[in-house]
């Protein structure tokens, strides 16, 4: 197996060079197709190496035709535009495990799930899958800068939680976390205790939130907003300082369209020198 050209559909919305590696899995993770987007001048500059950004929910990142929410992050278009500013990066999309998404992205088990159900707690196994299985396929076959300073993750909702968890628990691998619309409430606020009890964060954190994240559930909507602001305050208390960037959009909703709009500044911050 190897990286192959992306199998585009007739209604695909991909910009630039997108590759795929089929059948990537391990003992705890069903096989899935990993995606790799290459910067515009990747082929023309064979001696150049690039930072890497890993995106969770990879089926929603580059192509509306594969998105389960009918819209995409537009990471390919965003990174194409950033390349014109001189900011180049390889982007990796890791599709979620469908009905196991919550389990994979949650660092702790939800107490409301019965023992026989995969109700969270798979976050560390997911990071091991990313580090031990996915990252070698990227670093061994693409021209990356594999050190932590040039390796970031970004995700939304539960994907935001696992990005922060990775930065807290595997700082030797990851140096930046994009934490978009984080659902801290879904893990009973576990992330707050982990931030308080871990050594100070050495990397960068982009944290953002919308004011309309859960319009059908007012209490949940307020929890999104309040928890994100509380996490901002806690991260500042730990001394993150200029390595934290926070953005709150009162009109922001819980959808790819909102994350797409905030993605350019998030990547500028995470990829900046």
TrEMBL record:
**Pfam families, per the entry:** Esterase (PF00756)
- Which organism is this protein's natural source? Deinococcus aerolatus
| Cross-referenced PANTHER family | ENTEROCHELIN ESTERASE-RELATED, FERRI-BACILLIBACTIN ESTERASE BESA
Any idea what this protein is called?
A: Esterase
* Coiled-coil regions listed in the entry: none
**What Gene3D superfamilies does UniProt report for this protein, alphabetically?**
alpha/beta hydrolase (3.40.50.1820)
InterPro entries (alphabetical): AB_hydrolase_fold, Esterase-like, Mycobacterial_A85_antigen
Highest taxon, organism lineage:
Bacteria
Q: Which residues cross the membrane?
A: none
């Amino acid at each position: 197996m190897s990286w192959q050209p992306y199998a585009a559909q007739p209604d695909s919305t991909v910009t630039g060079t997108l590759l795929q590696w089929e059948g990537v899995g391990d003992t705890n993770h069903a096989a899935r197709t990993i995606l790799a987007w290459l910067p515009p001048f990747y082929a023309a500059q064979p001696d150049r190496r690039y930072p890497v950004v890993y995106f969770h929910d990879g089926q929603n990142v580059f192509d509306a035709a594969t998105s389960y929410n009918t819209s995409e992050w537009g990471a390919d278009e965003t990174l194409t535009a950033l390349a014109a500013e001189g900011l180049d990066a390889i982007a990796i999309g890791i599709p979620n495990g469908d009905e196991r998404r919550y389990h994979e992205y949650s660092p702790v088990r939800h107490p409301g799930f019965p023992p026989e159900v995969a109700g969270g707690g798979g976050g560390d196994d997911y990071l091991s899958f990313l580090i031990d299985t996915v990252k070698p396929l990227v670093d061994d076959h693409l021209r990356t800068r594999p050190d932590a300073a040039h390796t970031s993750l970004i995700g939304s909702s539960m994907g935001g939680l696992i990005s922060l968890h990775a930065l807290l628990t595997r700082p030797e691998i990851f140096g930046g976390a994009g934490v978009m619309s984080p659902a801290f409430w879904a893990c009973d606020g576990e992330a707050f205790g982990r931030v308080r009890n871990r050594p100070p964060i050495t990397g960068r954190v982009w944290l953002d939130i919308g004011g309309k994240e859960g319009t059908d559930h007012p209490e949940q909507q307020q929890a999104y907003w309040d928890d994100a602001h509380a996490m901002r305050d806690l991260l500042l208390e730990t001394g993150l300082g200029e390595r934290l960037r926070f953005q709150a959009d009162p009109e922001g909703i819980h959808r790819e369209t909102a994350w797409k709009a905030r993605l350019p500044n998030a990547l500028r911050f995470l990829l900046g020198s």
